[in-house]
Predict the 3D structure of the following.
Amino acid sequence: MTAIAPHVSDFLRVRLPVERNASAHTRATYSHAFMLLFEFAARRLKCSPSSVELEQVDSKLVMAFLDHLERGRGNGISSRNARLAAIKSLFRYIEHRVPSAIDQVRRILAIPTKRSTSRLVGYLTREEAQAIINAPDSTATGLRDRAMLHLAVATGIRVSELVGLQLDDLVLQPQPTLTIHGKGRRERRLPLWRETATVLKRWLRVRPTGASLHLFLNDRGEPHVSGKLSPEPA
């Protein structure tokens, strides 16, 4: 049997950040996918996650894991496909390090992604959007939430991008602008409405001071975990 743990460790610590220069978001996504995979494998094989061997993670187990994601965790097809992509990337790496596993790797790489039907995304009316923006109160937390909602409406920013914003990304003079760091290191700079700039200034006046350079902080005065509003992704 071949231990898989050293290969996973090297993949996350060397392959992604050093050789591929993958973003922190990509590394966190892959790491979470592997955590779910090895927790599932450990339950199925009745062992600890660190004891799972390379030969045990075959195409049959991976298929069972993907089925578990949809049926057990309630993940959608896009999440299922994203986690399959992470697994395939790991095994492409292993293919060049463990020649004896080539057939096993090829069977995993042959697992198809699942097709899904894209839903038409709806939209809020101006009145509905304004009602949501006006919902927070005038406390420090409310001013933060109002500023976040204003940015979301004005820029169409993703949640992960929103909570990952740094103070240096916001420029208020002479023209209010915001630099957004998107997926795949794609950056864009957007002008801000005067009203949005105003609510941001109100938040900055009450924003807790501290070591963090994040624009938005949680109720403990800290940045949101892993750049997300919730502590653990689905």
Notes: The chain is about 50% helix and 5% strand. The chain has two domains: 5-109, 126-227. Residues 5-109 form one domain. The radius of gyration is 22 Å.
